[in-house]
Specification:
Oligomer: single chain
Mean pLDDT: 88
CATH topology of the largest domain: Rossmann fold
Strand content: 15-25%
Structural class: alpha/beta
Number of helices: 14
CATH class of the largest domain: Alpha Beta
Shape: elongated
Distance between the termini: 67 Å
């Protein structure tokens, strides 16, 4: 067991010399096994081990017993321990979460707080191969794609999982062979949670009637899918850099670049844009399909998306906008209907931008430079104070010396300015 975990830790560079490792210890067999293995591996690497136990406030005396057990275990093994207490059920009710999710959030808050106090540390959790199989099936049944079917990664950010290729039965045999005791969580026997039903009902049936190595095969498949996922993610990030322009609270996908992508990357790119604009909560395949279909529709077509987001087909591509009506108010004068311009020289803030005004003495036969962000006006012909305002119905431009007119709206349409920028 130690040799296999040592090799796995080395392969994924989980523990470095002198590093701090925070280990989550519930008192169950998995975390107790992890604690003993980490104690040896940290000793070999000259790393520092810190145990953390979280009391969830859910199981009364049983949870109190778990805490007492972990305290006694760490004291006996001379391992530093920090204990945190949370009211998980109250948090679940307050934040409208499942008890499982609220508990997970509390645990990782405790782990990361401890890691921060140590000046930065890696957090070791005791997920093993059977947990990996359960996670993959859980994600599969809920409609996940390759990312979810990749399961848990050996290393993700500050999280390390040294036991991810070890089976649960191997852990139990290892503890029993060494006379090491552990605690049993009664909630693991409950069928209230889907994961427990997968663990206690589905996988035993599969082992008995289909393949007794099912968990190992699922875990191996997850590892291969993880490699595929990393490759596709790399290609998606490359596509994002080539095809997407990021603005404050918005992403614009250029049609020309997008249409040249493989359909698999197209779907992932749309999903990445949604993730950047508010996360993937409530985002399903149907929403990605809506975005894909919108790219094929005529200019002006739009769709509403989860989380208050929206998308709009534009002349050259697709706008995906965040919750704040992204992009649609950035060029408008904010607050007032009309903002007076200062007497030059001077400046004024409008529409989130600074407008600067100056006077230049014209030279005879001077050629006015055609600069996009610099506009020239004949000051002698201005009869009233200039203002910066939104366009109004009836606004027009004089387009020639004969005072020919063109509606401002028609001019902007001809210039293919998106409607929300006009």
């Amino acid at each position: 067991m130690l040799e296999r975990v040592r090799a796995y830790v080395k392969e994924h560079q989980m523990i470095g010399p002198g590093e701090h490792i925070v280990a989550g210890v519930s008192g169950g067999p998995d975390s107790v096994c992890l604690l003993f293995l980490l104690k040896e591996l940290c000793r070999e690497q000259g790393a520092h081990l810190q145990a953390v136990h979280v009391h969830h406030g859910l199981r009364g005396e049983e949870a109190d017993g778990d805490e007492a057990f972990v305290r006694e275990l760490c004291a006996r093994e001379e391992i530093s321990l920090k204990v945190f207490s949370f009211d998980v059920r109250e948090r679940a009710d307050r934040e409208r979460l499942s008890v499982e999710e609220a508990g997970r959030l509390c645990r990782y808050e405790a782990f990361r707080k401890t890691a921060a106090e140590l000046g930065g540390a890696r957090i070791a959790v005791a997920h093993h191969a059977d947990d990996q199989a359960e996670t993959v099936l859980f994600h599969l049944f809920r409609g996940s794609g390759i990312r979810g079917l990749s399961g848990m990664e050996p290393v993700k950010g500050d999280i390390i999982r040294p036991l991810l290729e070890i089976r649960r039965e191997e852990i139990l045999e290892w503890l029993e062979s060494r006379g090491i005791s552990w605690r049993t969580d009664s909630t693991n026997e409950s069928s209230e949670y889907m994961r427990n039903r997968i663990r206690r009902e589905l996988l035993p049936y599969v082992r008995e009637h289909i393949n007794d190595q099912a968990e190992r095969h699922i875990s191996e498949a997850a590892r291969e899918l993880s490699q595929i996922e990393h490759y596709l993610e790399q290609k998606t990030q490359e596509a994002f850099r080539l095809c997407v322009r990021e603005e404050e609270g918005a992403c614009f996908l250029f049609e020309k670049g997008f249409q040249g992508l493989d359909p698999v990357i197209q779907q992932r790119l749309l999903r990445l844009c949604m993730e950047k604009l508010g996360g993937l909560k409530d985002v399903e395949r149907v929403h990605i399909r809506i975005l894909s279909e919108l790219m094929e529709k005529q200019t002006g077509s739009r769709a509403d998306l989860p989380g208050g987001r929206s998308a709009r087909r534009d002349y050259q591509g697709l706008w995906i906008c965040g919750n704040a009506g992204t992009g649609q108010g950035q060029t408008r004068a904010s607050g007032e209907e009309a903002i007076p311009c200062p007497c030059p020289p001077g400046s004024v803030r409008a529409g989130g931008q600074t407008w600067r005004f100056s006077l230049e003495k014209a030279q005879k036969d001077q050629i006015i430079p055609q600069k996009t962000y610099t506009k020239w006006f004949d000051y002698d012909k201005i009869k009233q104070c200039l203002v910066i305002r939104r366009r109004r119905p009836g606004d027009y431009l004089e387009i020639n010396r004969e005072h020919g007119r063109k509606k401002l709206k028609a001019y902007l349409v001809d210039k293919k300015i998106p409607s929300f920028k006009r």
